[in-house]
Write a structure and sequence with these properties.
- 45% of the residues lie in helices and 12% in strands.
- The model has no long low-confidence stretch (mean pLDDT 76).
- The chain starts with a helix and ends with a helix.
- It is α+β, with helices and mostly antiparallel strands.
- Strands 1-2 form a two-stranded antiparallel ribbon.
- It contains 3 helices and 2 strands, in the order H-E-H-E-H.
Length: 86
């Protein structure tokens, strides 16, 4: 693939993004998506990602698209953890 072809493709993707984003459901920054704790081993198997942690360590998995318009605040993280059913 030539550099010109790559740039043209990138431009088409960039131009299409506003329309694609408009079709997505609006997410409030105060809405916490479904979440669960999984082990690093489960994450490696499910998502095929190289995580250099112990297999028994836990990760907080947020299910779905998670987008924030600004920095993720400590209060939002705290709200997420408090609302999590241990």
């Amino acid at each position: 693939m030539s550099v010109i072809t790559l740039l043209e493709r990138a431009q088409r993707i960039n131009n299409a993004m506003p329309a694609r984003m408009a079709q997505r459901p609006q997410v409030s920054e105060t809405v916490i998506p479904e979440k669960e704790f999984i082990t690093v081993k489960q994450a490696k198997e499910k998502f095929k990602i190289p995580i250099y942690l112990n297999d028994d360590d836990k990760l907080l998995l947020l299910k779905g698209d998670v987008m924030f318009g600004k920095k993720m605040s400590f209060s939002l993280i705290s709200l997420s953890i408090v609302s999590f059913s241990w």
